[in-house]
Known about the structure:
Layout: H1 8-29, H2 37-44, E1 52-64, E2 69-76, E3 79-85, E4 88-102, E5 110-114, E6 117-125, E7 131-140, E8 152-165, E9 168-182, E10 190-201, E11 207-217, E12 222-237, E13 240-253, E14 260-270
Amino acid sequence: MKNPMAWRIPLLSILSFFITFISLSAQESSSSSAPSAEELAKKLANPIANLISVPLQSNWDVGIGAFNGSKMVLNVQPVIPITLTPKINLITRWIFPIVSQIDITGENTQQGGLGDAVITGFLGPSQSSLTWGAGPAFLVPTATDAVLGGEKFGIGPSVVALKQSGPWTYGALINHLFTVSGNEDRDDVNASFFNPFASYNWKSGAGVTATLEYTQDWEHDVSIVVAHAMFSGVTKFGGQTVSLAIGPRIHFAPDNHAAYGLRAAITMVFPK
């Protein structure tokens, strides 16, 4: 029997690395003039902002499929910006999913562990009237259970573009992933992702965000469509600046989609 704690060991190693790296980076780049809550909220609305942050995003869905299953996915999503030149930044976004699911693959079944990671690097100008970035996205087979991942290594292009005007932020992120290697007995990956978003932030740091996450699985001819309406705010826990957000997950496709869901997130912010 597999040790149920085994999948936590690589996760703790990953978290320890990122927390150490981010803490050191934040200390090196700290400045006496701290940004306001409104400024931080607007930066957090920008997926490629030059801001070190560690979002912990929890997605909970129930009423899934023929067995009325439930699923919880905690995405650990550190964002690490790197200044390459005075005019060009590299923004790295890492997504490590921690999955727990019940009655998804069958009645009275349960799986838990790490899913496959997605790592993206966006190259873009540090100053521009239109904020944009482009670069490669990598699908890394880090799943600790065959049910939770595809056992395939994938790669593809990713592009994001957005505009910020006053309290508004609006834009979209697009990527496409396809298999380059992996277990030949598993299905190939050939999927496109489209994520338009719009947010409004008040001077207090509170905000509201609407997003659509549309995934087209070309390999299996399946569309997955989920909308979110998120309410957020910026605050502090002791000396740590955080953003808190919560809102419903509204499923439209596929036919066996979840009945309803909830997204909640806490983002640790390390202003530069």
